[in-house]
Amino acid sequence: MTYKEYLVVALPLVLSTITQPLLGAVDTAVIGHLNEAAFIGGVAIGTVILNTLYWLFGFLRVSTSGFSAQALGSGVAHERALAYFRPLVLALGIGMVFVLLQTPILQAAFVLYQPEALIFQSAHTYFSILIWGAPLVLLGYVNLGWIMGQRLIRQTLLLQISTNVLNIVLDILFVVVWDFGVAGVAYATLIALTYSFVMGCWIVSRVLDVKQFFSLKAELLEVGRLKKMLSVNADLMIRTACLLIMTNLFIAKGNRFGAELLAANAILFQLQYIICYFYDGLANASSIFTGKAAGAKDKQAYARVLHISNVMIGWVTVLIALVFLVAQEEIVGLFTNIAEVQTLCLTYMGWIVLFPFVIGTGLVYYGIYTGATFTKPVRDSMIVALFVFLVAFFSLIPPFGNHGLWAAFILFSLVRSVYLYQKKEALEKSFAFS
């Protein structure tokens, strides 16, 4: 693999994945110009509740991509179909459970966050509309993961960019033009999710004969393969649970600092999402090449993926940090015109400038490990990072307030990166390349 081959895959994936956090950014921006900080906080809390549900099962995208890439590398045709159908059935079941349990989920979340009245109302409106899209989100994870794993780069680009552009256009139309407020943001996202699911199914059907589902039913339930899939997914689920504990503690603590600081933290959190998704594009590319190398049992190809990934992490980190350092006032101004919230954002912007240096390796190496479906180090890195976060959370916030909260977040990101980097040689020795 050459740098050119890597970039041919990575650049479209960066372009497509970076549109995903732009959805949250546009949601926050259109609400942030309604001159009420509580609206921003309500959407932030509603988003975190939904993300808690979806991210916990984000393995449906990540592991599907890894198994799909390995099936491609193995050259066995029916393995491509099995890599799609197995997680598809699981995703449908989980999504329906979310819809059925929406009321207790919302009640439990509000016990945790204890939001002010107007924030409560906004979060309730946002969640109650979008929860109906839960099955579509999880099925969409499977569609996207399988398409990525098959190195269908143009199709991935089309799916993600068209979905997110539709969502952004509807956001502006429903909120800015028609003044539907928080409900407008939610309906815009729900419509875009429906479009994404239909488009994803269409793309898969152009490549895969979906009627194979009926002829492969016995193999879908093969105990050994199910055990491998569930083992990988269990590791990723634990990983995500640790991430969600950190995120929910962060948002809940910010909520207790007041509406303006909650709004500022919500905007800054959107910025860190944007940064993460830049790296996520690289991680997806590294995952695809690693998965292909694992499927072919090619250690030399794996070593090349590792080298190119390290170089790309360095260049992207410097570029992102410079952009946020130089243009911080202009970036904050895009999200809100509330003076108090703008001032608070700029007060804590230094943490966002630092963030790329501590998160890049962790995110890209996460892609490398999951591409080979060697997920134990991913799980362990997050357990250790969460422990460090909790220690910092309870020791740094009392004396330093919101700065202590962001310091704990930075330490969490640093620890996961350092841990995964140190474990990179274990992957080569793992079953993936044996």
Could you explain how this protein is built, in words?
The chain is mostly helical and 434 residues long. The protein has one domain (3-433). 88% of the residues lie in helices and 0% in strands. The chain contains 20 helices and no strands. Helix 3 (59-74) runs antiparallel to helix 12 (223-255) and helix 6 packs parallel to helix 9. The longest helix is centred in the middle third of the chain and has 37 residues, at 259-295. The relative contact order is 0.14. The mean pLDDT is 81.
Q: Which helices and strands occur, and which strands form pairs?
A:
Layout: H1 3-32, H2 37-56, H3 59-74, H4 77-100, H5 102-113, H6 117-130, H7 134-149, H8 153-177, H9 181-207, H10 212-215, H11 217-220, H12 223-255, H13 259-295, H14 299-326, H15 328-335, H16 339-347, H17 349-371, H18 376-400, H19 402-422, H20 424-428
Helix pairs in contact: 1-2, 1-8, 1-9, 1-13, 2-6, 2-12, 2-13, 3-4, 3-7, 3-12, 3-13, 4-7, 6-9, 7-9, 8-9, 12-18, 12-19, 13-14, 13-16, 13-17, 14-17, 17-19, 18-19
